[in-house]
Amino acid sequence: MLQIAAQPARPDAPTSSQPHPFTPFSPHSPSSPLHRSRRVVAAAHGALPEYTLAPKPPARLAVFVSGGGSNFKAIHAACLDGRINGTVVAVVSDVPTCGGVSYAREHGIPTLTYPVVKKGEHAGSGLTPTQLVDTLKSGPSAADFVLLAGYLKLIPPELCRAFPRAMLNIHPGLLPSFGGKGYYGERVHKAVIASGARFSGPTVHFVDEEFDTGPILAQRVVPVFPTDSPKQLAARVLREEHVVYPHCVAALCDGRIGWREDGVPILWEAK
């Protein structure tokens, strides 16, 4: 819950009898055990209100991966060192042998397979959409938030409906450009270079039922140099991914994300 401490507005700040259309979001009950406090300062319409966040228990995070899981590793590291008030309780993958799954097992994090594997030694293993939702909503792998970290499959509508405004993805390009089905990994960076764009960077957005179309939460910008190869650009963007994604996940866990009436999410910075 955000508790507002009244602050005087700047002399040049516009006044209005209507409150700013901002709704804080948290999955935790006010009666939950206390964990820690954060203060937030945010600028809106020229005013500088100050907020005190009620302490929360660590959020439970389910992370989806398809490959090496470098963003998952960055999030996990931030949980361990206290930058994120959360715990990774499950890792979900469509590739049971990928690096992200191996890392999870090495660190004692339960792993799940979704969707059902059709070929190879793991054929027949995996969860259906209904089983996936049931697993992530109850039991030892129950999660408050779902984080996609290089997961290449389309998320089932059932999961989107089960985690409204509680599921994030990171994309290696500046959405809404260079996104959608087929735009992932090095393909994004090749398209950026081929377009002649002078800037690129990662986008963190909420997940809906399509590829890369959910509300944008945060972006970081890097230059695109005339001599860049896709791998060089990818490395530059990835460094920023490892900064912005944990930053956004920390805000999500703290309850520092609100929503304007037009459906645009607002991230309130920690102080």
Q: Give me the secondary-structure category.
A: alpha/beta
| CATH second-level architecture of the largest domain | 3-Layer(aba) Sandwich
Strand order of the largest sheet: 7-6-5-8-9-11-12
Specify the overall morphology.
Answer: globular
Give the class-level CATH name of the largest domain.
Answer: Alpha Beta
| Helix proportion | 25-40%
**Which consecutive residue ranges, at least 5 long each, have pLDDT under 50?**
1-49
Helix and strand run: EEEEEHEHEHEHEHEEEEHEE
Please give the largest β-sheet. Answer: 7 strands, mixed
> Would you count the extended β strands for me?
15
Q: If helices are DSSP runs of H or I spanning 4 or more residues, what is the number of helices?
A: 6
Write the CATH homologous superfamily of the largest domain. Answer: Formyl transferase, N-terminal domain
Rg, please? Answer: 19 Å
Mean pLDDT: 85
How many domains, as an integer? 2
The CATH topology of the largest domain turns out to be: Rossmann fold
Query: Beta-strand percentage?
Result: 15-25%
Instruction: Report how far apart the termini are.
Output: 16 Å
